[in-house]
């Protein structure tokens, strides 16, 4: 999408009065209003059951609101726009095994572009570029089940990048990674120009990577601001079942 002219003012993502309830009727999201600019790196944080994953699944139409609107580049998610939304918004699931199911890494990364109907030479170029971007080109012929946790996460991200989305949505990307793999992941995400929306319990990652943090509690937004300021509010963190990361010297 051309970012020039009037399009610059259109948010990459906008949620308007979003409500969602689970099938049993329990509210999951209540009156969520949120706008994200192009290129922002925004964390969604909150205790277990706060609604983080549920919110993420609305961003590319996996879930549909009970009421309210989700807009991507100014367009509401509808049956008619869903295919374009899923090309624009790439979703990396919490468990990489949910995204890796082909015999080799290269075939996994190629799966999405092939389903777009792209010619084989374009698909191969996207696969090579995406794997190189995440530092996993040497894994192209490996079966996914033989990868480490960090390698699986990198390949799952490559599979999304190969679709060339402008918005990258990630659910708990650092979960289960050792310190070296976690640092590699942070450096990778910091180098991307995409709009990045990251649901996480890793508040230290938020300080390293994000310029904005949104706190969810019982399906409602309780705070939205710079990480250092939000994480300095002890009463907010206690109320939302969060623990402040070390922010001395920041």
Topology:
Elements: E1 13-21, E2 27-36, E3 41-45, H1 52-58, E4 67-72, E5 75-76, H2 82-88, E6 89-92, H3 105-115, H4 120-133, H5 149-161, E7 167-171, H6 179-190, E8 195-199, H7 203-209, E9 212-217, E10 220-225, H8 227-231, H9 234-239
Parallel strand pairs: 3-8, 3-9, 6-7, 7-8
Antiparallel strand pairs: 1-2, 1-4, 4-5, 9-10
Helix pairs in contact: 3-4, 3-5, 4-5
What does this structure look like?
This protein has nine helices and ten strands. It has 250 residues and is of the alpha/beta class. It has a domain of 164 residues: P-loop containing nucleotide triphosphate hydrolases (Rossmann fold), CATH 3.40.50.300. The protein has a six-stranded mixed β-sheet, sandwiched between helices. Strands 2-1-4-5 form a four-stranded antiparallel β-sheet, covered by helices on one side. Helix 3 packs across helix 4, helix 3 runs parallel beside helix 5 and helix 4 crosses helix 5. The radius of gyration is 18 Å and the shape is globular. The relative contact order is 0.17. The N terminus is likely disordered.
């Amino acid at each position: 999408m051309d970012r020039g002219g009037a399009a610059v003012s259109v948010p990459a993502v906008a949620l308007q009065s979003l409500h969602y309830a689970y099938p049993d009727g329990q509210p999951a999201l209540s009156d969520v209003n949120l706008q994200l600019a192009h290129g922002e790196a925004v964390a969604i944080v909150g205790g277990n059951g706060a609604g983080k994953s549920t919110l993420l699944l609305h961003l590319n139409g996996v879930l549909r609101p009970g009421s309210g609107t989700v807009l991507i580049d100014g367009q509401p998610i509808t049956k008619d726009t869903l295919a374009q939304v899923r090309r624009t918004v790439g979703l990396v699931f919490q468990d990489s095994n949910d995204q890796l199911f082909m015999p080799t890494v290269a075939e996994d990364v190629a799966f999405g572009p092939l389903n777009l109907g792209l010619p084989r030479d374009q698909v191969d170029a996207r696969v090579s570029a995406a794997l190189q971007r995440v530092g996993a080109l040497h894994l192209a012929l490996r079966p996914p089940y033989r990868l480490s946790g960090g390698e699986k996460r990198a390949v799952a991200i490559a599979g999304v990048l190969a679709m060339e989305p402008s918005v990258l949505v990630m659910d708990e990307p650092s979960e289960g990674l050792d310190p070296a793999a976690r640092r590699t992941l942070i450096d990778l995400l910091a180098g991307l120009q995409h709009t990045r929306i990251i649901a996480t319990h890793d508040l230290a990652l938020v300080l390293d990577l994000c310029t904005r943090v949104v706190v969810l509690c019982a399906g409602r937004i309780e705070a939205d601001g710079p990480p250092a300021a939000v994480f300095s509010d002890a009463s907010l963190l206690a109320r939302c079942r969060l623990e402040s990361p070390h922010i001395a010297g920041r």
